[in-house]
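Side project, low priority. Logging it here so it doesn't get lost.
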Amino acid sequence: MIRIEVVSNDFSNLKNEIKFKICNHFERSIWLVSDNWMVWKKKEDYFEISFARELMIENVRVFDYFLPKLKRIKPHENIF
């Protein structure tokens, strides 16, 4: 199981800042995309905040697409 806990947040002065902790409860390492930006998506009556990249569209070439930065999280490790 992977657990993400919000440590603090600040939505003042047009700034959206969320500090969080990611806990790896698996017995194996996991890899996290750590591009350092979030994607906001509106879904029905709520917003989803995610680090997931958008899916690439078949036969469309993306300008300046780059490989993601990855962060290894060892078993039972927490990162901030």
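Brief comment: The beta strands are 2-10, 17-24, 30-33, 39-43, 46-50, 70-73, 78-79.
Revisit when time allows.
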